[in-house]
């Protein structure tokens, strides 16, 4: 098989980046993988009520090659009214054991304790190239690479570690999708709430609410009434708890007085704080709430708390999170994760980027119905 040109081949100089993204959706044992010219899409779901999507952009790899195969006859027929060019090739899709893949990447890229800390340090502190020398772990990892290969439809997913001239290969069995994998739909043209904030704030709030072991997470948002944005947990063995994000009211004084308020920037200097036109939680960068008339002035939705907790890994490593809600109540938590390329063994990504690489992990949750929420608050039903 070595003489056959693979459908897909990618080389990474930092397996920890791949491990970090895939671990975010590691709540399921299997994942559906789709190979595309722009990257690898991993999708994990559970009981059709939670779905995690992780996209490994080709910029994460030092080299990325994709040779789309010719579509099978049945795929061409299913394309319907598509033009001739669309049914000559397709993007391979298969199922792989996500737990086995994580264990493999963990062996390859996590066996050095300092490598595990590379990402966390880069996400909260500016890089300091002067602190790196020939005896630090990043310098010792220059000759390490992880190669992913998929040769043909139905072949295993090959993972090869090359380290100082020694190669270790692992092959993961791939399976055909059963056809039941359907993305939880998010109506992008019917978004009624969009909140962008630092992911650490959401992570802290969920951890705080989790201390009371609730069954239901209640999200409440309003553009005109306090609390403007609040999360609460209910239905557990302890009393109900809530977290309300603080609000900075528009200044009632003149413009000169409002401009006297300062905010500290990343470089240590200060600048005037921008005056907000409408009240909004101080911790948010974007706060848009437009409930339909049937909801009144406030958006209220309930979700199974244990499902929201499955996104805790993504909350912990992400820089920012976009919280979106559509008219059907589907909740989307889209996490933005930045990787510092300075600690990746010195290899330049395939995209040629010199700065941080941005990756995204998206979680989608189906809301609880009214009777399900009531059952959770009573401590019965399937919300245990």
UniProtKB/TrEMBL annotation:
One GO CC annotation: checkpoint clamp complex
Alphabetically ordered keywords of this record: DNA damage, DNA repair, Nucleus
Family: Belongs to the rad1 family.
Biased composition (Low complexity): 241-252
GO terms of biological process kind: DNA damage checkpoint signaling; DNA repair
Polar residues: bias regions: 253-262
Annotated region (Disordered), positions in chain: 241-280
InterPro entries (alphabetical): Rad1_Rec1_Rad17
Pfam family of the protein (one): Rad1
Upper lineage: Eukaryota, Fungi, Dikarya, Ascomycota, Pezizomycotina
Subcellular location: Nucleus
Name of protein: Rad1/Rec1/Rad17
